[in-house]
Amino acid sequence: MLQSTGTTYIYVVTTYVGAMLGSDLKKGSAEFLVLSLLEHERRHGYELNKLIESRSKGVLTFHIASLYPLLYRMEDRGWISGRWVEKAGERRRRFYSITTAGRHALDEMREGWLEFAAAVAQVTGVRYG
Amino acid sequence: MAEWRERLRTVVAGWALSPEEQAAIVEELEQHLEQELDELRSRIGDAAAEERIMTQVDDPALRDASVRPRHEPAVSVQSSRARAVAGRPGWSAFVRDIRYGWRSLRASPGTTAMAVIALALGIGLTTVMFTIIYGLLLRGLPFEQSDRIAMIMEANPSHGEPELALSMHDFFAYRDAQKSFEAFGAFSPGVSINISGDERPERVQAARVTAAALSTTRIRPSLGRTFRAGDEIPGGQLVVVLSHSLWRDRYAADTSIIGRAVRVNAQPATVVGVMPAGFGFPNETKLWLPLRLNPAAVPWGSGTHVNGVGRLRAGVTLAQANSELTAIAKRIESEHRQSNDGVRPVVQPFIRAVVPSRVYGLLYAMFGAVALVFLIACTNVANLLLARTTDRMKEVAIRVALGASRAAIARQFLVESLVLSTIAATLGGVIAQVGIAVFRQAISGQTPFWTDLRLHPQVLLFIALAALLASLVSGLLPAIAAARSDISDVLKDQSLGSSSLRGGKLSRGLVVFELALSSALLVVAALTTKSLLNLRSVEPGFRTEGVMTGRITLSTRDTIRQAAFFQRAEEEIAHIPGATAISLSTGLPGSGWNEGAIAVEGRTYQGTRRFPTVRQLAVTPGFFKTFDVNISRGRAITAEDHAGALPVAVVNQRFADRQFPSGDAIGHRINLTPDDTVEHWVTIVGVMPNLYATDIGSINRHTPWPAEVLTSFHQEPRGTASIAIRTEAEPASVAQPLRAAIASLDPDLPVYSLTPMSEVLAQSRWDVRVFGGLFVVFGIVALALASIGLYAVLAFAVSRREREMGIRMALGAAALDVIRLVVRGAVIQLVIGVSIGMWLGIAAARLAGAVLFEVQPTDPAIIAIVIATLVATGLGACIVPAVRATKSDPVYSLRAE
């Protein structure tokens, strides 16, 4: 879980770099977040939203306008696949699970993120490890 | 319908999708918003919650979102359990972890290389020892269902006799009455014969066997036949079966060998068969003769004694066979109490019966030692990986924060360790191959025929299991440490020192463990090194340079003819050009002594076990000049001590000190056969220095300087003699003249074991050299691993405290203070680890007593050297990084904050 210092860290990085690189980085981060949350378990859209919000302590939030189009685009790319699932006694819900291509993409994103974070740390003087 | 629902449908209707797709998207978004509305209502009230939802629906981004048509898969009905199952990592996760682990290892080549080398050494050495044990003890005889072949001996526990050969009467009784064995035969152990004929006479290892004994192996001859019942009848025509190597080397693999006439111990014989290559049953046999027994000719229990061998019937166990034979033995005992009182059969697996217990003990002790090396290597790697883990805690923290489960983190580290172990196992296999080749060379000719030292499939499986175990042992701690760490602390913590604390405790514990094991191994290695040095520098008390030796065994049992032959042989050999002194004796000094009990005249002894034991050798007068043995008191054995003269003896100083501590031994009489009804008294005429005598059997194993008695060779009948020729020329130059001299007396008599005396002594303690050498290798490897491990861990720990040292120096601490701080921590680990290790090492040295020569397990000099070596290594390991740390700029260290 990200604590206050981590919040500052990520927030600073996001806004500072976002001013330089625009929405691409934010969009890339969002896909990264979604793929990570789907890595071990399939989830539906609301659950994804709540997890991102709770684990980031409210720093990162999605509305349906950004979340679902994102999910549908990731489906088109073949990174995730959505299925309607009916459980006994419940309404059907649409669950998303990660695909093999999505796992590969996740691996690359992780590496890229770590390299990026290390590079930023080098520049800003924050000790990364 | 709520307004937001209407609005949502309107927005989605504006997307270029089919009505079905629109309906599905609306359903999905409605579910999301319903849940969010429920949650918001409880927090901010209905109105505010509705407003929030409406804001989302009215978001222009939603209206403008470009959503392409999708192919909607079928609805699946699943339980909640299936949902969890679907998320479980499978094969693809494992492959991914392998790829990730490989990249991670490549990123730190130095650490990876050290870890691979450490594990490879551990796995390689362990594999060598396992190969030896497997090839010698576990694999079994190279015959079909060899575990069904048993050796049948006897024992008489009430008389203190744990191992007896079978009398031929007992053998026939067992054979005729038993039902447990499908084949029940016998063989005479330790037979050597002279073979002659067209070629030069030769001495070969032979076996007298019954036809049934060979049939237990189910091996058919490659040429001709083996023995039939008719071949075993005493007095019949003598037939022989040759081994493949004898047929190849002596008879040039002549395929018409069957029916060839040869001479065995000067008797005519006919070759009837040749066995396949590699067959040497029962023990390195080159030639087989039929075992001819005539039990009717002697009283029960007398005459030839044999070893029984049988193949168990299907379904019969060793215990069942033993029970059956025990019942038969009791019937024999009731009928022949005088000879068989208390005699019971002992049925055991063939190899277990043939290989001495002390060899089993020694090999398993060595396996224990090498397992310690393996453990040290794993501990070393665990420490290295733990240090890397501490370095990677930020990475781990971010992965967990982004959704990776702790099980996945732990799995990743374990897989990384498995990749490391797999590489190390491959290298370890190469090390094992080299080690086995070297060992095979070192023990060439010393192992039984069934020994097969190579990388069998079972050994390869062992390597795989060792690699798996290594990966678990070395990877488990870092995996647990990574998975259990507090992520929030790690992410908050910018200081490296505090996050290394948890890893530091584990690391220090591992270092202590490693030091303890290494100390133990080093103690044993140092003791065996000293043993080897002692062995090399031992002054045997007799001459070894410039002496050629050989051995002859007469075919005749006529003692008069034997005595006459040896008289002529002594004269003939003395005339060999270049011979300055010659000797005939029952054995060679160093390894050829016989063991026997004696009784001093005038003394009483309680029971047979109270008689002192001595080493005995019968020698001709030339012995003393040949081997430079000087008499210190009295006289040597001379030509006057011939057959018919007063039987005399020369004793060594140890004998004199033990038996006559306050007087002179000369003039006293001793009985050399106190157990026998026929007494053999000799008079002591001289005292000589102690002569080096290696261990024989299991008595007096721990002293190479036992009590010794020399008697006159010509005063006792015998059929075998060791010949020694002293010469100023090269010893090998008298070998051919010696053969010629003996051949002139008896053309059928071979001279065998032609070896310079210096080599005889070297060969006699090959086991100490080979196994002692292995211990030294283990000890050196253990020291190297412990040193590397200690250095790496201490260097890492010091580097993690660089900032702390910077602060201290900025506040005025001297470099020496900082160094002292680092060293103090290391010394504590050293003291604990080495203390435990010394205790373990001394205990282990007692178990490895078979390879120690004239050195005590608690040798103070050795203990001191080992402690000094480890302390020096440990101090060196921490001083270097400590000094480096004091040289860094404190301001730079502090700037990291």
Report the uncertain regions of chain A.
Answer: 1-22
Characterize the overall form of chain B.
Answer: elongated
User: What percent strand of chain A?
Assistant: 5-15%
Distance between the termini of chain B: 59 Å
* Rg of chain A: 16 Å
Tally of DSSP helical segments of chain B: 30
Describe the structure.
The complex is a heterodimer of chains A (129) and B (897). Chain A is mainly α and 129 residues long. Chain A is 64% helix and 12% strand. The two termini of chain A are 18 Å apart. The model of chain A is unreliable at 1-22 (pLDDT under 50). Chain B is of the alpha+beta class. Chain B contains 30 helices and 25 strands. In chain B, 41% of the residues are buried. The interface between A and B is large, with 53 and 58 residues.
List keywords for this structure.
heterodimer, A: 129 residues, mainly alpha, 3-stranded antiparallel beta sheet, 5 helices, 3 strands, globular, disordered N terminus, B: 897 residues, alpha+beta, 8-stranded mixed beta sheet, 6-stranded mixed beta barrel, 30 helices, 25 strands, elongated
